[in-house]
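ARCHIVE CARD
CATEGORY: sequence design from structure
SOURCE FIELD: tokenized fold
FIELD CONTENT:
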């Protein structure tokens, strides 16, 4: 699958990733998407080592399509949970799938496919938690990973806080503390693995768009 670059960012990313020699340099081009950048860059280096392709687009395209598969699977399960009436499920699925973000999953050279797919999975696990199928730990950890995929995912923090509020109201304080600590630890470790320095969250260094 060929990568597509509908906007200027794609051309810049394709050029810049070829000149990154170390994981510590990733924040220079993946400012707000640490884990997305780390995965694409690691895949790009692997493709180069295996001499599969000289095009930097291939790594972006593969990640894009894999995220598309995850998005469809997550959306399918989400639709099953949202609609009790079977006749409503195809309409809900198509309504969500037909949004403009679907273009991210056809080889689009961008940073956001993992985060877009992650949103659906976070919502799904949140619903499953509220219905008693999961512990709060599952959506909390999913959110931590989603945050490292894209810092702008903080916009979904109120949804996570509502889930934690339900846990606190039920007086399950220990599971809330353990889930929070585990999630923060996972996010921190993933940020470090992705090459981000300890001072990445100092004022002015991160621009959440």
């Amino acid at each position: 699958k060929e990568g597509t670059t509908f906007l200027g960012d794609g051309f810049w990313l394709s050029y810049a990733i070829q000149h990154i020699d170390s994981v510590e340099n990733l924040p220079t081009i993946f400012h707000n998407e640490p884990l997305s950048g780390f995965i694409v860059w690691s895949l790009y280096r692997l493709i180069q080592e295996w001499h599969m392709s000289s095009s930097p687009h291939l790594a972006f395209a593969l990640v894009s399509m894999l995220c598309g598969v995850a998005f469809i699977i997550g959306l399918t399960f989400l639709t099953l949970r949202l609609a009790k009436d079977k006749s409503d499920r195809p309409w809900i699925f198509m309504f969500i799938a037909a949004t403009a973000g679907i273009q991210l999953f056809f080889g689009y050279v961008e940073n956001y496919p993992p985060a877009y797919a992650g949103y659906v999975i976070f919502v799904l696990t949140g619903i499953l938690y509220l219905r008693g199928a999961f512990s709060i730990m599952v959506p909390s950890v999913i959110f931590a990973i989603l945050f490292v995929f894209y810092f702008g995912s903080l916009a979904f923090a109120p949804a996570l806080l509502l889930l934690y509020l339900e846990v606190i109201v039920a007086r399950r304080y220990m599971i809330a503390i353990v889930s929070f600590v585990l999630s923060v630890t996972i996010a921190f470790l993933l940020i470090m693995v992705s090459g981000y320095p300890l001072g990445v969250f100092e004022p002015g260094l991160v621009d959440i768009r």
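CARD ANNOTATION: Residues 35 and 149 are 5 Å apart (CA to CA). The helical segments are 8-16, 34-49, 57-82, 89-97, 113-130, 137-149, 157-169, 173-193.
SHELF: design records, drawer C
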